[in-house]
Specification:
The structure is a single chain. The longest helix is centred in the N-terminal third of the chain and has 29 residues. A hairpin with a 2-residue loop joins strand 3 and strand 4. The chain folds into two domains: about 300 residues, no CATH class; about 110 residues, Riboflavin kinase-like (Elongation Factor Tu (Ef-tu), domain 3, Beta Barrel), CATH 2.40.30. The protein has 15 helices and six strands.
């Protein structure tokens, strides 16, 4: 995963979040007179029409989708498209768009849901600093949301129904990020966007059916707003979002989505002339800095060096390793990585470990080739990190280390 790929993917998700904030502060309030269920159905129907060419063009990829992927795609459509959008629209409509700060605040729980589900289902693991930046990002989102962050009376006065809808939207979109990442394993991001919108239309058809009688009463201005949503915060933003999600981890994507409160406040200033407070500016800076640091933390590292002689103790634990000079680690966070290894112009998958070696009790930098046998001592190799798997661990017994290595090997079979 190259550095440019990480930044481009992150930027795409951030732009999508900017468009979503335009939706909440400017577009969706113009649909306030319509039932929220009908709004969700209409915007997804129009969006599906726009995305239909991707379904036609990439239809050959449909046969690549496994049964498990179909389940995750349905989850994305149900929770990310149907329920998540309905919950958020309902929450915003219930506030009357007079004070949406509590809705935005509670939606900040989305990263917590997404990161937790990424750990459970996608087996994503992160260096310790990741969690620090994640917490700082959420704190920054809180300060951006409220002009006076110490006055929480608005939280106490908000009805539990609005709070419940906001949290349900956070869970729905957080889980959609996680399962959307899994759904993208072997299909085009445009195809996933089309499938999400198409399935959402089918899911929302029955709930919206009872409101079809009022369709003739939908004004030209409301239809225009729906079309604008499709080409900004709707189908276009979702296409852009999946483009970015294809390139970066789900956990990073959900943090990049926190650009939404910053942009929402900025749009609120230009559209409604609400001035930022000092704490909102500080919160915005914390949020942007945290997401930027996470982006750097998730970048790919490339390490090149000559394989050094070792003590051949790795074989005793079930994994023969090639040792590299520890000085090559640089700013690489300690832990275990899934990597690509290039040797003699051939590319192999491997496990790369940087941290305390339980057998020698010294820091080490070593790589285990998957599906490779041969002598590489003295050769120059290139290691490119792909995915962080776990933090370093220490073991007193070689048998415990061997059991951990078996777990690590099982972890990368998928």
């Amino acid at each position: 995963m190259s550095k440019n790929k990480i930044f481009i993917g992150s930027l795409a998700v951030i732009i999508a979040a900017l468009l979503w904030s335009l939706d909440g502060t400017f577009l969706r309030p113009q649909l306030y007179a319509l039932p929220s269920v009908l709004v969700v159905f209409l915007e997804h129907t129009l969006g599906f029409i726009v995305l239909l060419p991707f379904l036609i063009y990439f239809r050959s990829e449909l046969k690549l989708i496994t049964r498990k992927q179909w389940l995750t795609i349905f989850w994305v459509a149900l929770f990310g498209g149907a329920l998540g959008t309905t919950f958020m629209t309902k929450a915003l409509f219930l506030t009357g768009f007079k004070d949406i700060s509590i809705v935005i605040l509670l939606q900040k729980f989305q990263p917590i849901f997404a990161i937790t589900l990424s750990v459970i289902f996608l087996r994503e693991r992160f260096p310790r600093r990741f969690y620090l930046y994640a917490i700082l990002a959420i704190i920054g989102g809180y300060f951006v949301t409220f002009k006076n962050p110490l006055a929480i009376s608005s939280v106490a006065s908000t009805t539990w129904v609005i709070a419940l809808f906001s949290l349900l939207a956070a869970f729905s979109w957080g889980s959609s990020t996680t399962f959307g990442k899994y759904s993208l394993k072997n299909i085009h991001y445009g195809l996933l966007a089309a499938l999400r919108f198409g399935l959402t239309v089918l899911i929302m058809f029955l709930p919206a059916l009872s409101y079809f009688s009022i369709l003739p009463a939908v004004s030209g201005k409301e239809w225009t707003t729906l079309v604008i949503i499709v080409f900004t915060s709707g189908a276009f933003a979702m296409y852009l979002y999946y483009y970015g999600l294809k390139k970066i981890p789900a956990s990073l994507a959900t943090l990049c989505e926190l650009a939404w409160p910053v942009s929402a406040v900025i749009f609120d200033y230009f559209l409604n002339h609400n001035v930022l407070s000092a704490t909102q500016i500080i919160g915005g800076l914390i949020l942007i800095a945290s997401v930027y640091r996470v982006t750097l933390l998730n970048r790919s590292f490339t390490i090149m060096g000559k394989v050094l002689p070792g003590f051949s103790r790795g074989e005793e634990a079930g994994a023969k390793t090639a040792n590299l000079d520890i000085s090559l680690a640089g700013k690489l966070p300690q832990g275990l990585y899934l990597v690509d290894v290039i040797s003699d112009d051939q590319k192999y998958k491997g496990l790369f470990y940087y941290g305390r070696n339980s057998l020698s009790n010294e820091d080490c930098l070593e790589v285990h080739f998957l599906d490779f046998s041969g002598d590489i001592y003295g050769k120059n190799i290139t290691v490119i990190t792909e995915r962080y798997l776990r933090l370093p661990k220490r073991f007193e017994l070689i048998e415990d280390l061997a059991r951990q290595i078996k777990k690590d090997l099982e972890l990368v079979k998928d």
